Amino acid sequence: MSVGILIVCHGHIGTAIADSVRSIIGTLPLEVRILDIPTDMPRERLVEEGTRAVEELDQGDGVLVLTDLYGSTPANVACLQNRENVTVVAGLNLPMLLRVMNYPDLDLPELVGKAISGGRDGILICPRKDQP
Amino acid sequence: MITREIVIINKLGLHARAAAKLVTLSGRFESEIFLERNGNRVNSKSIMGVMMLAAAQGTRLVLTADGPDEEAAVAEIVALVENRFDEPE
């Protein structure tokens, strides 16, 4: 068993990030479901789909829900899933998902830590070419 | 413990897919494996660590392996790098 991953983001961001990680590492070692959220989908349906996805993903080791913008509709829908054995992390970026997929054997609390550190470590001022 | 200097020779450098290959290969070994560039030392089994090296073509890195299979680890990683990560150039 392992932690399931649910990605809830604006437009096609979730699919694009997951596809990019898959092309980089060749596979997605954790079970992933993606909710691409269009602007015109009724909130009730989003919540319903999110709940169903979490239930299907939870094989006993819990679910890590990754969303893009805290406070937005996708994140609000994601946060409704917050309960025991489910953790929602906002600020999804490519480094975050890449690091999560690097540690498929970790439990949910450890994976949450990797998600946050991966997302943060990927944000930096890039060194100039003329500096070592 | 074995330490070896390696040079990234493929055109695209240690880009994302190359880094993923290196991380996957490193993960097969029990030994602790590190890569160092200008004092920045990262775990060779960490994809984000390896990405943070931003090692372009020509970059020199210090490879260190420490553990029961350190010799095989260094040999296979050196081979991967010298084989340009199976890339054409």
Description:
The complex is a heterodimer of chains A (132) and B (89). In chain A, helix 3 (73-79) links the parallel strand 3 (63-67) and strand 4 (86-90). Chain A is built from 5 helices and 4 strands. Chain A has a single domain (4-121), classed as Phosphotransferase system, mannose-type IIA component (Rossmann fold, 3-Layer(aba) Sandwich), CATH 3.40.50. The mean pLDDT of chain A is 94. Chain A is 44% helix and 17% strand. Chain A has a 4-stranded parallel beta sheet with strand order 2-1-3-4, sandwiched between helices. Chain B is built from 3 helices and 4 strands. Chain B has helices spanning 16-27, 47-51, 70-82; strands spanning 2-7, 32-37, 40-43, 60-66. In chain B, strands 1-4-2-3 form a 4-stranded antiparallel beta sheet. Chain B is globular.
Write the SSE topology:
The complex is a heterodimer of chains A (132) and B (89).
Chain A: E1 4-10, H1 13-25, E2 32-37, H2 43-57, E3 63-67, H3 73-79, E4 86-90, H4 94-102, H5 108-121
Parallel strand pairs in A: 1-2, 1-3, 3-4
Chain B: E1 2-7, H1 16-27, E2 32-37, E3 40-43, H2 47-51, E4 60-66, H3 70-82
Antiparallel strand pairs in B: 1-4, 2-3, 2-4
